């Protein structure tokens, strides 16, 4: 159940000394082939880290030999030195592996605006290469953790081939990708176009539909590597389904481990005129601090839900406010825009997961956005992060 | 310093029993003329309360005789009964005053989805009319409070005429008007077009630029009443300036009393290509929970600021991420997109107010958005509001 479960991959996780805690902070994933197909999706933030600038370029030819990931420093807003550090990281990794620097993807996570301790990182690369192993997936998944409390890994097994994944990201989870780094590995034989299409389709409906705190990161990266080592060539649809499943599982794991959360909340919009309308309404609700604070208080305050639904412009999501239905955990507490079943029947404290269904009665489209509640622990963790 | 300071107005604030606390919850403002010019601006939320539906209609002829405002129930998502209650409120007020119901504006604030205790409200109206007084402004300002800790009042004095105001609203403050009810009174002689234009211009750059928690209300209403009792007819520009000043002072007072806040934060965007770009960037930053939690922690985490700036699409706000400057309380902590002065020089705990300046270096336009920090108290108050 890791990125080294598929054939053709080695990985390592070591301590380079970037984290003051002394915990592992440098991961390396190597694709030993025979194929070295790579595809990637990056944050849509206009302020991005040097590693994103480097890696966007590195994946344009859809060949990726290795991925270096560090926690303990985002290398964002670090100027020309920051880019030189990302470049040097790729160069040294390539030299150690006998590869081309242009085939090395670099990912960094941590504080923005702090210079990367490049000397430590480069020294750590020697140990990471020495530590590469076909059992190294779990160590790599641990080394990329920041405020995550558990490593996130996944394995999808198909007929004769498999797809593994790892992810980090516990804060700044938001649409257009969370603050997260994800590596997916597969031993299926896939061409670049198939890999790219499968990855884009999967991220659009998984990582792009989780929104923990509405804050889009500068460093989000999802990389898919294919070694082709299984010799099996799945149908594109079969492959896409596996990528979708792996991404959905990792996205769910990210939400389950979001900073300070006590509830995982699925906001499902049904009866929308089209999928974009459903997504817009879902995002409006999952962005509401008032709604999220109410969920923390186990208060099924549906008024805060319909107030947010009403903020979506009509041209984006047509609906009649007098027809809105809201269910929480199956109970129809708002019908036709007004109070219906007694919310006192609900005991939100009984489970971590809360399921909200909003029916717009305006069509057949649906979408689900995941978020968390807004808690004291979220405020605590995020008011004391850099100091 | 109240809505009854200008000549021609009486007001009252009484206890109708809508609030379980037993505090005053019903306010009445009457314009005794000779003019009864009225203008109003309402929430742009598509889900609105019955009072908003009623009052939008009532102000179309720009004649407003009285404003009834209640706390202790928003009368939102209350269906046909809710509209009937708003209508009955206007009818009874009109009957008691010898006016037309179509000239009575009704405003309600409180929980969404709970039926209004219309019998109590209607009974309270008798006492409110009995209590009307030219000194009643402060009592009215107190009766409209919900989670506000202080009444908010203002008085702008001009040559021979004046403009008074009162406001409530401590949560759900967000662009496109806060959860707030505002009544402005003036004894200046102004025509409907002048009143309307002055009110729209002022709200666009004051109430519409405060964003406490990103949540747009269903009930926001700002009403301006002119009695003409001073006999003075100011120039439209002079009148507009007074309305602007009163709205700015009340908006600032709302932010200063926002739920659970410990910092008032002005995010000023300069060097923008146009005002809309400056507003968009300012709103992106003031919506960031990560930024707001950092402010609560007195942590000048500028990385979270530029990460939010980067979420604004280029077609909305052109800028080069490598040219962004950020000042906090005058200290240039981010220059040209990277670290500059040492943030440790800042002591954000030293004052309630924090001033952030973001220079996009893309033009000459500027805008300021006010917000608050995200605190434990905010989470506490909003996780236990309806239960």
Automatic annotation (TrEMBL), chains A, B:
Record-listed E.C. numbers: 2.3.1.35, 2.3.1.1
First-listed, main subcellular location of the protein, grouped into a coarse class: cytoplasm
Ligand binding (substrate): 146, 168, 179, 259, 382, 387
Matching InterPro entries: Arg_biosynth_ArgJ, ArgJ-like_dom_sf, ArgJ_beta_C
Organism: Occultella aeris
Enzyme class: transferase
Pathways involved: Amino-acid biosynthesis; L-arginine biosynthesis; L-ornithine and N-acetyl-L-glutamate from L-glutamate and N(2)-acetyl-L-ornithine (cyclic): step 1/1; Amino-acid biosynthesis; L-arginine biosynthesis; N(2)-acetyl-L-ornithine from L-glutamate: step 1/4
Keywords: Acyltransferase, Amino-acid biosynthesis, Arginine biosynthesis, Autocatalytic cleavage, Cytoplasm, Multifunctional enzyme, Transferase
Protein's GO biological process: L-arginine biosynthetic process; ornithine biosynthetic process
Subunit structure and binding partners: Heterotetramer of two alpha and two beta chains.
Compartment(s) where it occurs, according to its Swiss-Prot or TrEMBL record: Cytoplasm
Record-level Gene Ontology MF annotations: L-glutamate N-acetyltransferase activity; L-glutamate N-acetyltransferase activity, acting on acetyl-L-ornithine as donor
Chain positions of site Cleavage: 178-179
Catalysis performed (reactions): N(2)-acetyl-L-ornithine + L-glutamate = N-acetyl-L-glutamate + L-ornithine; L-glutamate + acetyl-CoA = N-acetyl-L-glutamate + CoA + H(+)
Protein name per the record: Arginine biosynthesis bifunctional protein ArgJ
Annotated Pfam families: ArgJ
Site feature location: Involved in the stabilization of negative charge on the oxyanion by the formation of the oxyanion hole: 109-110
Entry annotation: catalytic residues: 179
Family recorded in the similarity comment: Belongs to the ArgJ family.
Protein role: Catalyzes two activities which are involved in the cyclic version of arginine biosynthesis: the synthesis of N-acetylglutamate from glutamate and acetyl-CoA as the acetyl donor, and of ornithine by transacetylation between N(2)-acetylornithine and glutamate.
GO cellular component, one term: cytoplasm
């Amino acid at each position: 159940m890791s990125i080294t479960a598929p054939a053709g991959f080695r990985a390592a996780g070591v301590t380079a000394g970037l984290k003051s805690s002394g915990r592992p902070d440098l991961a390396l994933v190597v694709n030993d082939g025979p194929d070295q197909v790579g595809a990637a999706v990056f944050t849509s933030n206009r302020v991005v880290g040097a590693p994103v600038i480097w890696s966007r370029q590195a994946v344009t030819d859809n060949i990726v030999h290795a991925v270096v990931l560090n926690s303990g420093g985002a290398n964002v807003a670090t100027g020309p030195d920051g880019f030189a550090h990302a470049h040097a990281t790729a160069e040294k990794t390539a030299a150690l592996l006998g590869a081309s620097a242009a085939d090395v993807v670099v990912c960094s996570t941590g504080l923005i605006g702090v210079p990367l301790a490049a000397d430590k990182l480069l020294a750590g690369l020697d140990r990471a290469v020495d530590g590469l192993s076909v059992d190294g997936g779990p160590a790599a998944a641990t080394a990329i953790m920041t405020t995550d409390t558990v490593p996130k890994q996944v394995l999808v097994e198909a007929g004769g081939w498999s797809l593994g994944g790892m992810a980090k990201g516990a804060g700044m989870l938001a649409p257009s990708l969370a603050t997260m780094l994800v590596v997916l590995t597969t031993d299926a034989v896939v061409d670049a176009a198939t890999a790219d299409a499968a990855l884009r389709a999967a991220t659009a409906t998984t990582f792009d539909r989780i929104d923990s705190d509405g804050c889009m990161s500068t460093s989000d990266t999802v990389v898919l590597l294919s070694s082709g080592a299984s010799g099996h060539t799945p149908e594109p649809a079969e492959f896409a389904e596996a990528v979708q499943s792996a991404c959905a599982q990792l996205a769910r794991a990210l939400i389950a481990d979001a900073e300070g959360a006590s509830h995982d909340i699925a906001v499902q919009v049904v009866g929308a005129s089209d999928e974009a309308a459903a997504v817009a309404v879902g995002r409006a609700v999952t962005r509401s601090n008032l709604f999220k604070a109410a969920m923390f208080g186990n208060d099924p305050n549906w008024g805060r839900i319909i107030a947010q639904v009403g903020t979506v412009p009509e041209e984006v999501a047509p609906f009649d406010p007098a027809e809105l239905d809201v269910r929480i955990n199956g109970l129809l507490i708002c019908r036709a825009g007004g109070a219906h079943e007694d919310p006192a029947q609900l005991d939100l404290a009984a489970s971590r997961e809360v399921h909200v269904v909003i029916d717009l009665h305006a069509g057949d489209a649906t979408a689900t956005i995941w978020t968390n509640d807004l808690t004291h622990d979220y405020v605590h963790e995020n008011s004391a992060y850099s100091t």
